[in-house]
Amino acid sequence: AGTQRYADEGLAAARALAMPEYVGAAHGHLAWLAYRREDRGACLGEGSAALRSWETGQRYTLQWCARLPLLAVNLTQDRLSEAVSNAAAMLELSQQRLPDDLTEALGCAVLDGAEPDAVRSALERAVALAVAARLL
User: Fold this and answer.
1) DSSP for the chain?
2) Which of 14, 39, 74, 116 lies at a 20 to 30 A Cα distance from 4?
3) First-residue to last-residue Cα distance in the chain
4) What is the pLDDT along the chain (136 residues), one digit of tens a residue?
């Protein structure tokens, strides 16, 4: 409930101040909430809204807050290419480094030429590690 309240307040303030990077952050938190509630549609909507906001603002280094929930939902919907795109984006040098084991799993998922089963396994491991680290 607290996350919902703060995300809503943050979203309103960020919109009022025309700060798209923080609008995106609020949408990212709302995507996380939707993921936790198992509302895949809302997760995809909020996560996509976050990504759109970050396209217009300054480079936001904490994109994992939306990309991890998006990746997890993409995986459950067998949308591997979208999940891999989110994994690759989280590995960009401009992004906050995630825990080493999670970074390694994401890296295995984006290897060129990896077999789909290996990609899926690496993404599943990444989601499990994110859950264990309380990032999802």
Assistant:
1) -HHHHHHHHHHHHHHHTT-HHHHHHHHHHHHHHHHHTT-HHHHHHHHHHHHHHHHHSSPPTTTHHHHHHHHHHHHHTT-HHHHHHHHHHHTSTTSPPPPHHHHHHHHHHT-TT--HHHHHHHHHHHHHHHHHTT--
2) 74
3) 16
4) 888 999 999 999 999 999 999 999 999 999 999 999 999 999 999 999 999 999 986 789 999 999 999 999 999 999 999 999 999 999 999 999 999 999 999 999 998 778 999 999 999 999 999 999 999 9
